[in-house]
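Data availability (excerpt). The following record was deposited with the supplementary files.
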Amino acid sequence: MKKIITILFIGIMALRLHSCSDSFFDRFPSDSMQVETYLTNDEEVENMLYDVYYQLRSVTQDIIYLNDIGTDVAYNRKTNNSMDHINLNESNITETFGISSTIWSGCFNIINRSNYVLESLGNVADETNRKQFEGEAKFFRAYAYFQLVRLFGNVPISTGVIKDYTTLYKYPRQPVDEVYSQIHQDLTDAAAGLPNSYTVESLKGRATRIAALTMLGEVYMTRNDFETAKTHLKSVIDFANANPTILGLETNVEDIYDSRNANGKEIIMAAQFNYGSTIISNYLMSASIPNIINPSAQPTYAYDDGTTTTIKTSEGTSIFLMTYDLYKKYDPEKDKRFQKLVYNGLYDAEFSSTAPFAYRTTSNATYLPTTLKYYDHQNNYNGLSKYAAGTDNIVYRYADVLLMYAECLNETNNTAGAATYLNLVRNRAGLDATTAASKEDLSMAIENERLLELCFEGHRWFDLLRIGRLTKIMTDHFNWAEPGLNSVIQSHMNGNDKIDSKATWKWADVTYPILFPLPYDQLQLMLDFGWTQNEGY
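Predicted structure:
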């Protein structure tokens, strides 16, 4: 499906709704193609849906940044002067913070486009298409509201197209419970109307009943209703057990992220980029590569077949690097995720290759381990010279379902059963079965496994917030190391295990809900209509 979306996106750029607006919904399009004279048949309504899929790319990128750079997974090396990412890493969040602002606008773009699709269903002649389009639109509207409510709390709800944009300023922020009620309804409808999977190749990658059930499971977990969550997730697992060629764990962890294996059997939902393309490509590849200044030699990566490739660090931006906190949690001797998905060969000869980091003072370069989840190895076979990655941003995959289900079982006092599903993920990674036996110990084991399995995929902040350990983990993280980590690297090379922190995690001592700020410009527009900023800003 990804190539179809790319082609159609180029074709419908002229009729897209503008991204900028005076408030949280888009205005009318101001170019020659008007929505009032479009969306009149199946193809045109589907084109609007394709634009929803396109919007998902930018939203998922920022969701991944926020969840991982904002926690103990990733950090920004600072040399790129990317202030939003640096501020996120250093917990220096204000109401002008750009990443949360773009998530806000991106999610409302998805909501408004989804509403256009839903309002235009009467113009869809084919009944099968009509049912499909409705399910997809409701799935993505729920997805957008699920991100918004977890990040901002109370948010405005719109289930219809805004035709008179002067009425935008009358929309109040709705309570969290009402937002979740809307999410529940949309996902329930989506699950009822969408197929479990697709046999037609061009449809693979579109929203499914399995994706809706997976999100419903996470939604109910977020609301601490583990019994209901368990039911939805078990339905996904039952489908996988009955259809192992359609849904299940990949045997090799690296196959999950192979751009040639887009929509592979482990993927439930992903924002898709183009394999072999330099136009629609995933920026997270260059973001996760450390930019090395004047290196004496470019590092190489060796494949199992004996071939090698050069990791062109000069094209990296160092925005999305791996923390030592995360690095030290892997078992390098056993864990295939470390062996296949963490590049840790950037070592200077003057230091031991067993050190987790090496600091090269002569060239002002820091050699760091990095995730390879977004590194498109196929670029080398395609002859691409730039980091034009076709790797996707994964929203949900089957290993995530197994770990969520394990958490639900443990929370409902079936600890032995929970260990069984946890071990499916551990064993695939090459690790022994968990030794955790008590409910408390298994809870920690699941938390740790989600970190090692799903790091750099946009889950950590939401996971820690859900289980109530965000403050504990982040306070410890900030107490161990100052942001940026260059001094940590040097300290480690000097034989020290920690250094004093020069920063404090923003929410360390708060008693109010941990939320991101409403975008400054939106708040200013809504002040006269009763909107107030979230606490702490």
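Summary of structural features: Residues 18 and 122 are 24 Å apart (CA to CA).
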